[in-house]
Amino acid sequence: MDDASIIWSDAGLEVHRVVVGPLANNVYVLRCRRSGEAALVDAAAEPDRLLELADALGVVSVFETHGHWDHVGAIDDLRRSGRSVWVHPDDRTLFPSFDQLFHHDDVLIVGELRVRVIHTPGHTPGSTSFFVEGTPVLLSGDTLFPGGPGATSFEGGDFPTIIKSIDERLFRRFGDHVLVLPGHGAPTTIGVEREHLDDWVTRGW
Fold this sequence. Notes:
- This protein is of the alpha/beta class.
- The protein has helices at 47-57, 75-80, 159-171, 190-194, 197-203; strands at 5-9, 13-20, 25-32, 38-41, 59-63, 84-87, 100-101, 107-110, 113-119, 128-132, 137-141, 144-145, 148-149, 179-182, 188-189.
- It has five helices and 15 strands.
- It has one domain: Ribonuclease Z/Hydroxyacylglutathione hydrolase-like (Metallo-beta-lactamase, Chain A).
- The model has no long low-confidence stretch (mean pLDDT 97).
- The protein starts with a strand and ends with a helix.
- The strands form three sheets. Strands 1-2-3-4-5-6-7 form a seven-stranded mixed β-sheet.
């Protein structure tokens, strides 16, 4: 697809991004360069575009960061094309359909890539981040953005919970160099965001 771009790569991994839908959702494809197999993160919207991207890049699986409407609009189309959709059980009722469940600290295999599941609740009960082992790539969904945590005002959201997720499961686990790829907007790094945690707690959002 001419509107998808590679935003990070090394000898083993390509990370492609395309922006779709009315809320400008980031959809990422993690492609194993050695096997050609890939996974799509968040089948958000515009299914025709995502099917074209999936066909071009060898997508066999879809990993969902959470179940809000703007992240799930193309799931049924991807499933009908033969791709397997993976979700966290705590958000299972939010998805139109799915195939497999993952849990915290599971490893999802994509060719020769190992994608670590990190349950980061707070935006939704089942919100999940994904870390590609052996790389600095962390996909944070709507948990962590440049400038702070995702919204917690929706049903199922909780501000103290998202702060705990970010602090204990992201900031304490990963180094400053780790690249954070959020569900909307621009990338950031753990190092840039870590120093502002107390400010977020003080402001309360």
